[in-house]
Here is the input.
Amino acid sequence: MQNVEPNATEGPISILEARRTIITAFLEAGAWALLSIAVLLWITLRRLGDVLLTLIPLLVAGVVTLEICVLIDMPLNFANIIALPLLLGVGVASRFTTSWPGARDRPDCCSRCSRAP
Here is the structure.
């Protein structure tokens, strides 16, 4: 737009710049969330194989989600940017609740609470 009219301001320029800001923020939020999760997983699990077994499904799910957004013509917005790190966190949390070392050996909380004294 500024190639055609170098003095263009206000509405059209604001919309274009907001779009660029949203896309940049989306990519930056995803990269920071992924890096933070990878570091925490490495500290916790201490095995590259376990870290990759946790991260690869999350990355595949993220790519498929973005592909579906493109297919159904859903634009990126602030809700997507906020939800991305949260969804990555939920995916990692599910990894720990389903396969934490020794989790199968611990009694189930619900079964303990439901027993009569």
In short: The chain is about 75% helix and 0% strand. The radius of gyration is 21 Å. Helices lie at 11-45, 48-71, 78-99, 109-114.
